[in-house]
Amino acid sequence: MAGAVPGAGGAAPAVERLVMMLEARGATLAVAESLTGGQVSAELVRVPGVSAVLRGGVVAYATDLKCELLGVDAGLLAEHGPVHPDVARQMARGAAHRLGASHGVATTGVAGPGASDGHPAGTVHVAVHGPGGIRVRRLALAGSRATIRGAASAAALALLASLVADEREQSAAPRR
């Protein structure tokens, strides 16, 4: 078909591999998004069969919802605001816990076009939570609002793929 996007259902091959890795491990996933506004979830649901692993997602754009829905510490939010690595960590852990998943992925930051809470556009934190631990990555992105959101979504999914791959290697390693 002319103009078709490669990959099943238009999903990127890396996202397809991520879903297959999660499914092979019997893992489940919950998503917590702020600046990406559902884009991470949208990328995942492009993959046919993702329902075997995706439990659900929360778009907690408002700061108070990060606390109320995802269990982010209110004191942390009051002291540092929503654009902070510990907020991303707590969002990922909270999503996994509240949605009953083995893994959580989260995004928080400033998509722009201007600064917010003293952080320039492109300041982003992505985090993942799973049996292999919690990882967070700070990004300093440039470009349009759409570019920043897209790069943040891709970085969050790449960080999750890295965690799941490391978990797979750890479980395959011989025990001493």
General description of the model:
Strand 1 (29-33), helix 2 and strand 2 form a beta-alpha-beta unit. The chain has a 5-stranded mixed beta sheet, with helices on both faces. By secondary structure, it is α/β, with parallel strands linked by helices. The chain is globular and about 45 Å long. It has helices at residues 13-25, 39-45, 63-70, 74-80, 85-99, 145-172, and strands at residues 29-33, 54-59, 103-109, 123-130, 133-140. 44% of the residues lie in helices and 19% in strands.
Task: Describe the main β-sheet briefly.
Answer: 5 strands, mixed
For the secondary structure, the number of strands is 5
Q: CATH superfamily, called what?
A: CinA-like
Which regions have little confidence, pLDDT < 50, spanning 5+ residues? 1-8
Query: How many helices in DSSP terms?
Result: 6
Keywords:
176 residues; 44% helix; globular; Maf protein; five-stranded mixed sheet; alpha/beta; 6 helices; single chain; 19% strand
